[in-house]
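Pilot study result, target chain (342 residues):
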Amino acid sequence: MSAKAFTHMLAADLKALNTFGLPARAARMVHVRSVADVRELLAEQGWSDADRLVLGGGSNVILRGDFGGTVLKMEIGGRRLLREDDSARIVEAGAGEPWHDFVRWTLAQGWPGLENLSLIPGTVGAAPIQNIGAYGLEMAERFESLDAISLTDGSERVFSAAECRFAYRDSVFKQQPGRWLVTRVRFRLDRDWQPLLRYADVEQELAANGVTAPTALEISDAVIAIRRRKLPDPAEIGNAGSFFKNPVVDQLSCARLLAAHPEMPHYPQADGLIKLAAGWLIEQAGWKGRDLGAVGCYERQALVLVNRGGATGMDVERIATAIQTDVLSRFGLRLEPEPVFV
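Predicted structure:
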C-alpha cells in the first residue's frame, strides 16, 4: 500500500479531546479531513465496528477508559450557501465545523433560523446524530439533508430528514453507532423568519436589555448570555453539557405525578405527550450542588455533571447511576443519559 494520505498517531492522548476532561488513550488516532481519508482507512484489513470510534468535539462522550482501536477525529471543514430561492436558503457545512461558529456565521450573513441553538458545544456532524435542541428549537426543524459514508462498505449516501428518523435527542445514527460517518450537513433556513420565543428565559433576557422586537442576532446573544450564566465553560470545568434527557410521559402518568407533586414543571408537546424537566427532578432528589467523589452535580444547573478534578469515566458512571436510582425511587421515572458511554 502506498504511503497514507491521512495524518495519524499512535497511543493518542484523548484527555484534551473530550470536554469532560477524562483521562483516556487510543491505540491510534486518524485525523479525517476528507472522504478520501475515510476510504483509505477502510481499505485497511481486519476492521470491525468495535475497532472504531468517531470523535467530533468530544462534548457528548464519556470515556470509561483507554480505547484499543482507532479514533477517527472528524475534521472535515467548509461552509457555504448551497442554493437559494424565494422561500429559503440551503446552507451546508462540513461535519468537522464547530457548531456554534457555524451558527454565528449564518447570522453574520443575515440568514436567521439557527439562533436558538447558539453556544451548543460540539461539531456540525454531531448535531444530527444527537438531534440537538435548546430554547424551543430542535435541529431537525431546520434540517435539509446530510451526506454520510458507510464504515462497513465505504458506500456514500444522502439522508433525508425522514431517513434520519429524528426523535428527541435521537436519530438512526445514534441507534446504529459505528455504521455511518456523517461528512456534510445541510440546513434549510426559511426567508419568512419569525422569532422563536417559547422560553421565558429568552423573553426575560431580551426584556432586560430593552429589546422588544428582537433580531435573530439579538436572540443568539440572549441565548449565549443565558447559557454562560447557567452552564459551566468546559475549558474551565470539565462537563458534557446537559447530562440527562428530559423524560417524556403520557398524560395519565403526568396526572399521577402532578397529584403527588403539583408544583412539578411540565410541558405539553404537539404529539399529546408531556415533557418533564429532568433538572427539577434531580434537584428534588437532593442532588443539586452535591458531589460523589471527583464528580459533582453543578450548583447552578442540576442537569449538568462536572469534573471537580481528576475524575475518571467510572466516576461519572457512578454518580449518574446514583442520580438515576434516587429519581426512580422518588418519582418512578428512569432518567436516560444524553452522552454516549464508551
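One observation from the pilot: The first strand starts at residue 7 and ends at 13. A full batch analysis is planned for the follow-on phase.
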